[in-house]
Amino acid sequence: MVSAGNALQGLAPGVTVTTQTGAPGGDAGNIRIRGINSFGGSDSNPLVIIDGVAGNINDVDANMIESISVLKDAASSAIYGSRAASGVILVTTKRAKGDQLSAQYRMYSGWQMATAIPKVTDGLTYMKVFNDASMNDNGTKIYSDDAINAFTQAYNKDPNNYDWQKAILQGSGFLQDHYLSLSAKSGIISVAPSFGYLQQDGIIKNTDFSRFTFRNNMDITPNDQWNIRMDLSFVNKDRKQIADEGTIWNYLGRMPTNIPIYYGNNYSDGWVKINPVGFIENGGNRKQNNVELIGNLNVSYKPAEWLTLKGLVAPRYLTTNIHLFRKSVPTYYEDGTEAGAANTFTELTESARRQFYGTYQFQANAKKDFSKHSFELLAGASRETYNEKILSGYRRDFLYDNYEVLDAGADNETKDNAGAEYEWLLVSAFGRLNYNYNQKYLFEANVRYDGTSRFIGKNRWAFFPSFSAGWVVSRENFFEGLRGTVSQLKFRGSWGKLGNQNISSSYYPFSEPLSLGGTSMNGVVYQTIQQLIMSNPNLKWEETTMSGVGVDLSLWRKLDVSFDIYDKKTDGILLRLNTSQLTGLEAPVQNAATVSNKGWEIGAQYNEKWGDFKMNIGFNLSDVKNEIIDMKGQSSGTILRQQVGSSVNSIYGFIADGLYQNQAEIDSGPTQFGTLKPGDIRYKDIAGAFDANGNPIGDGKITDADRTIIGSTVPRYTYGFNMGFSWKGFRLSGLIQGVGKADGYLDSHYVIPAVNSSAVKPWQLDYWTPENTDAQFPRVSLTSTNNTQNSTMWMRSAAYMRLKNVQIGYELPKSFIENTFLQSMYIYLNGQNLLTFTKFYEGYDPEINYNAASSDGVALGGGNYYPQVKTISFGIDVKF
């Protein structure tokens, strides 16, 4: 497990973790707690608190984590501030234990491979399918018998020269992780330094990732009144990618299999001068270095037994440097003449980003008991600052394409640079009151008053209250006779309102940037500055209101069960509402949309022991119904749709109603797109008139009005099942994880046969012909506009069940190591993502959201993502 955030996958009810890619250094999980709150640039990520300071869970070595807790309801999250509207993840790192010097060394190494690859057929099959497509279109063949014979002879001489996938997947996939920690105490000082090193090679060449982490947690306890924590964390990450990595995965399952990789020692012209093997070997690189330094000074003072004062200062400094160097990769024809290159010049972009977070906090905590009454009052204030500077430079036309520095770029006409600076400030005051009577009746109230620089005027400040109550029924006198069976029974409820200031990718959403341009008058170019988008100074906090009830049950002190029902509604989500064109400006963003998440969660854990045999079994299941309930009469999106009554990012398109079998069916059906022929997709005509029973009878034509919501990309159900068994020194553990009732969408050459000259997948061969009328896919065509429409034909269930992790290990007996310096030694074999059960497209991983546009421009519905990976590794854990 490279990214620590993935540790939550399948283990906590109501928490959905999805990994978009298995790329080295890029496999950080996307975490959602109780659904998706918003859309259109709003932030649905939970707040991560690491030892009291906001941070990134994936920048923490998983070996350094002592515990992870997830806060899901508004009352428990409220004290953590304005970024807690999407839930809070509390991470506690390891601190020194005991009075003696101790050490621990952990390591594992293994290999990674793709969970799914879109396998392709050979070149002869490719040529046959495209001949069929051309015959369907115009009655001619693309490939003559002579061309097929010539290919067959060339293929028989060197089959490997046509195996693009084998040539692309040449990376070792080797992975290794090392971790060393110490724990020591001398007098009033305890220290726990730890070191981690991870190195990961990609499944394609010239891709890798390395991470070095150092953390030292220090505790100073001069006396019973004072406690000082001085923590320091340093992380250095280096990630290397192919310059145009998206291109590689685009062509992994697309490259025509009748085209060779090389002509002699030269790269072939591939497809439109793109040779993905050439891109990997000689197309440049993208190198990213991240350095993070975090300090945390936490001072606690108890002037009285009932009062504790705490102060915290935590600076966090990050730098990100990106080096993107694209090289021109020349390709050649079979006769040796140069065919050209997809990139016609070399270019280099260097960018540097510096970020500084400052966290300052003070709080007072008073606690007092009066007989059976217990009171606790907390009051505090915090100040969070952020400053970011960005600087970039660009050059092109390098005389020496192995000298990757800006000054080596020869073209002075195109050189460029840019820079920017951003900052924000968040100031908060907060308080919390806890009361319980005899540990039976529990009550908590939280209040926050938050101010942010992201808004202006009266909208800068907002008040957020929350309340919770609990009843521990098992402590009542009337429950006495049941305690042997039911050791705990607790009912609880909560209500709260939380705010979110991160409603836009802009740090100043109330103000739209001015646009620089130019105009020519009398042969002279004058620079212009103009406003193109209307600003909205009335923007305010996005508010999430959540209520819920739950029950905790413990039976026989072996089985623990929890059940929750919740209702979460987020108001004030940003939209661009239509405005009058008389303004001459594009419409501003407004707090206009509302999203609802309603659901339930259940979690259970059973522990048992028979002599030397121990067993623990856990299960969790959650259901969330995500729905947009207000968009002020608007809707947006093509494949992914935001529309009232549907979930966020729903799939939008036509409803496919089988395939036309003959011309008579076409003639009697509605008009559709292009020239229809038998074997084409028939769409439901749902716009227009309705019959007496309210069923649509259509208007005789298929238009955009017949598009509708056809699926949801938000999983309805998320579940996990974990188990662990041990007997003497042997241990066996496993985790099964999955989602239910979710849809995925792929289109274009990824799934549609004979589109864009793409390689043919084996499962695409079930296409309609007069001899195969009960086919899965429509007739093959090079020109059909009808069959490539967004529709249910190309949508599949993205539900899956995955064997996420399985580990078998053995701990050496104490008698074996008693005369050594070792305290314990555990060796194990581990597997991750070993098996996946799904009805999604073969060769594509259902966990990846193929509908999402990536940062490097991957189109919606595209499958050009680095695949998920499965890992087999061997490890050792030694304590001494």
Automatic annotation (TrEMBL):
Residues annotated as domain TonB-dependent receptor plug: 3-88
Keyword Transcription regulation found: no
Residues covered by the TonB-dependent receptor-like beta-barrel domain: 251-834
Highest taxon listed in the record's lineage: Bacteria
Keyword Zinc: no
Location of the protein in the cell: Cell outer membrane
SUPFAM superfamilies: Porins
Any one cellular-component term (Gene Ontology): cell outer membrane
Protein name per UniProt: Membrane protein
Organism: Chryseobacterium formosense
